Amino acid sequence: MSYSKEIVEAVFSDFDKKRKNNEHQRNLRLFETYGVAPELKAIDYELSTTGLQILGASLQGKDGLEERLSSIKQRNKELQEKRAEILKSHGFDIDYTDMKYECDKCQDQGYVNEKMCSCLRTALITRQLESSGVGQLILGQGFENFDLTLYPENTRKDMSCIYEDLKGYANNFTKNSPNLLLVGGTGLGKTHLSTAIARAVIEKGYYVIYETATNVFSDFENDRFRDRYSGEEPVSSKYMECDLLIIDDLGTEVITNFTVSCLYNLINTRLNKRLPIIFSTNLISKEIVKLYNDRITSRLFGDFEIKKFSGCDNRKIK
Predict the structure, then answer these.
(1) Rounded CA gap, 172 and 154, in Å?
(2) Are 139 and 51 contained in the same domain?
(3) pTM of structure
(4) Is 112 a member of any domain?
(5) Helix, strand, coil content of the chain in percent (nearest 5)
(6) Domain for residue 34, yes or no?
(7) Mean pLDDT in residue range 284-306
(8) Once rounded to an integer, what is the mean pLDDT over residues 110-115?
């Protein structure tokens, strides 16, 4: 499983801010209690020296060590009880000055016994969903709300098969999953099912990018004129590295020698790395052949599983 460097850095930055805020809020609560009960400060100072007291007792040798440790323990207990009584007498809960965590399991560290905590995994998934390229759309379109009843009876069986195929693709996704070419007219569900795939694969912990063809090639164009000596990584490099790349509306981009060259390089690079791509397009086969050169079409028709969507424009029906 993998996430982009930017996503990991952003999430860990959030966790760091969370821990610092926890500490800040605790200090504010401590200062509040010290203001109404100054004796608490002296108690807290003595409690904070418990570790040093135990070390000092140990350095005195084994003789009488158990008795010295028992004395320290008893004193610690008495201080804790006195502290609790003072807090209650001033109307505070006894745990008022304790550190408060959003996740008690990992104490907002992100890991429990070197294993990723569920809160960190959720944060990574959420950040990935937000940055995948389709924003709120990906949160609202899943396999669970794809309506097959919108399709005419003569196409519903075929669309049901495509639905099951794509659902299985998402559920069993690996970096070696096949490439897909979703073909069909406007409003037939290509975007809905491709975003459903994106969401399901992201929730499995993979790095997924979902973008329109126009935006993808715009990024390549911007990198073309980028300062090569700036030290910054090209924006378009993410399209070469992500676990799954989904490009919507192939063919709507401005077709130039440059964009065609970028498309070939993108497909070829990901094929060589065995990283899957999903294209969706409103173009039919003849239009694809007319727009792109033989090197691209041979790969699209030879290295991609083609799913032909049929029916009526569901957007109009809705």
Answers:
(1) 29
(2) no
(3) 0.69
(4) no
(5) 60, 10, 30
(6) yes
(7) 93
(8) 89
